[in-house]
Amino acid sequence: MLQTTAATISQGKSIALKPEDPDVEAEFNGYAYSYKKDGQKTVATFVKKLLPPDDKVVIGATWAVIERSYGDKADSAPRLEGTGAEQVIRVDGKKHGYIVVPIKETTGEIHSLIITQLSH
Q1: Which residues constitute the domain of residue 38?
Q2: Whole-model pTM?
């Protein structure tokens, strides 16, 4: 499952979300973002101010998106799973686990977080 998710994203294939669903606007510590949820997948996009390549900021933003999108409290330490292009971040919440794939610019700044909720 982890490899398929990361491989699909790393190969540049699009994430299919319903276009008729409106994006939800939100903010985390001055980083405005919009997100769209479709079932167990959420895509959060940071447009005006990208997330810096700072682990603490990225983790905090991930927790905030999970709480807003899924209503789950994720405050566990994230861990890396997989290797190379297949590597993803795993975060556990109180109710579910989540796979997080940050989409980066060449500068290392992050413009999107793709979060998939796992079934327990």
Answers
A1: 2-9+24-118
A2: 0.79
Assess contact for 51 and 109: CB atoms under 8 A.
yes
For residue 118 the two structure tokens come to: 């796992």
Nearest 5 degrees, angle CA 74-CA 76-CA 82? Answer: 100
Q: Express each pLDDT in 12-35 by its tens digit.
A: 444 454 555 678 899 999 999 999
DSSP 74: -
Domain count, the chain: 1
Identify each DSSP E strand in 31-78 by its residue range. 31-38, 41-46
Contacts made by residues 25-31, CB under 8 angstroms, sequence distance 24+: 26/64, 26/65, 26/68, 28/60, 28/61, 28/64, 28/65, 29/57, 29/60, 29/61, 31/57, 31/61
